[in-house]
Predict the structure.
Amino acid sequence: MPGLWSRVLEDIRGQVRTDAYNTWFRPLVCAALDSDGLRLQVPEDFYLSWFQDNFETLLRETLERHLGLQPELRYERRASGASPGLPEVFVPQSARDAGLETAYTFDSFVVGDSNKFAQAAAQGVAHKPGEAYNPLFIYGNVGLGKTHLLHAIGNEILRAHDDRRVRYVTCETFVNDVVQMLATGRQADSFRALYRDSCDVLLVDDIQFLGGKGKSQIEFFNVFNALYGTRKQIVLSCDRYPRDIPNLEQRLQSRFQWGLVVDIEQPDLETRVAILQRKAAKKGMELPSEVAMLIATHIKANVRELEGSLTRLHAYLELTGAPLTVEMARLALGTLLAEGNQRVTVERVMQTVANYYNVSPKDLMGPSRKRAVATPRHVAMYFCKKLTDASYPALGERFGKRDHSTVVAAVQKVERLLRDPRSDLATDVNRLTEVFEQ
Ligand code: ADP
Ligand code: MG
């Protein structure tokens, strides 16, 4: 009854750690299983006594559940040479091979209202890869812990299910691999192996970069289907909701929502303080609560900036040897605390967009309607509306005393083009978004 035995094993597999399963259950060979009982072949005597002490009860209970009766258990030594059930030489994958950063774990992730849903979903996936939610799609602004959670999932899966092969890649790496494969034509096998055949858990960071990249979208679609169809776990991170990714094929958009879509928001004050304290403790820094409060009230939008402030403070402390007080933190962090509050300004948008398109800010304000200037002007207006508090009339004024309806039309035009798969404006907008987020 091989079917029954494999069901029993499958059941046990869910009840013990993977390493224990591999060591103690994989080598078992079921010689017979019937109403008389179960006859098992074991590799060695020492194995048998350990097995009986530690796992026999579990085996009995599981068998009883599946058979409806308590079978008798008989063991025999397997003849040497015959070793069909011996585990293959099994080398767990290293975090490095998987592309994982070992410091990003669930332990080092501070949970608050802003991220508890995403964190719980990530843990669910790590606990039951391929079963809980597939795909898991985590989205949120930059610096809020998406990458951290992706690595935490990977690290946890390698720890708890060491027979699963995990692959973490940034979307950029994926795109590069596609380009390489298509360019050489020879690497299709290794591409396939990397992303499909020898991959049980695929973690792709910043999937918004697929936007506008048609060939990569086709390859990703194939990878997605192959993994999904064999119940392999897929986890994606993104800076926005699936349907807001510009120039992304409809079929991918919908697939990204097949499982669970969760967002991470800006952490609240308490969470920010807790994160600071956790990071300080890790650095061996004594962080008075007033100082943590000072930093957390000024730096709100981005956890990476919170970390940056601590690093700076730490260096300052080591250099001066002075005790850490609120005054000294103000001194050390001066500009950083101010920057944390600073929003993107209209000037900065104009300058950045002008640089990007190789025109001058004056051109953006000027009358020319040439495409080479009009497109950058529209994009600049779009970013001003998105990133600053300026109203439409105020923006019209800033862009060479134009009417507010011109700005409204420009912003709408950009938004429309971002949704249009035939337009390549999304690439520009994505690049610029990155610049503004730095
Ligand atoms: P994202 O990928 O969303 O841009 P990251 O995951 O790179 O953000 O996070 C930026 C930094 O902030 C990382 O060093 C990460 O460890 C840290 N971080 C973010 N959220 C948390 C959190 N809840 N607890 C601890 N560290 C965090
Ligand atoms: Mg990230």
